[in-house]
Amino acid sequence: MSQGGCSGSSSVIDGGNSSAASTAINPKNGDIAYIAGAFIVIYGVKTSRQEKFLKNEKGRAFQCLAFSPNGQYLAAGDSSTRQPEITIWHINELEKNGRGYTQQYRLSGHRFGIQSLKFAPNMDYLISLGDANDRGLFVWDFQKQERVTSNRLGRLVNAFAFDSN
To answer: What is the pTM of this model?
Structure first.
């Protein structure tokens, strides 16, 4: 698997994406991830600096982000109007250099852009919601890189959540 870092940029201030799904907070360490076009910027709250830049290998703009509940994975969906993909990085704690992000999985199946992502609280599944053109709701076993089920929604859905029961 490839390392998802980019060292060419030294600073990114604003990604220009106003969606609530374009920012995520790692529940394990508080790091903030935000979208800047085809890049994801990882901002270290403890260091008060941009620590990592993850690039979409296909050059497509990202649309949404989600950290796993245990803080060990970061998923991002792209906004391509043609076969968008979900990229999932595994987050490794490194002794001297903070955290390493290793691209581990790629999921495809949506026909148009991906609007939102959410990991199940028990980490068994990743849910993806397609944009207004796609309207697909997919349930993934992301570690097996398999779609468990999917449904094309008749109406536009703006958000979804897991029942705590």
So the answer is: 0.86
Residue 148 contacts residue 125 (beta carbons within 8 Å): yes
Q: What is the pLDDT at residue 21? A: 79
For the chain, what percentages of helix, strand and coil (3-state, to nearest 5) are there? Answer: 0, 45, 50
* Closest alpha carbon to 18 in 106, 79, 73: 79
Name the residue type at position 159: A
Separation between Cα atoms, residue 35 and residue 110, nearest integer Å? 20
Host H or E run for residue 88: strand 85-93
Residue positions counted in the chain: 165
Distance between CA 140 and CA 124 in Å, rounded? 9
Specify the number of domains making up the chain. 1
CATH code for position 80: 2.130.10.10
Checking if the pLDDT of 66 tops 70, the result is yes
Is 6 within the bounds of a domain?
no
Has residue 159 been placed in a domain? Answer: no
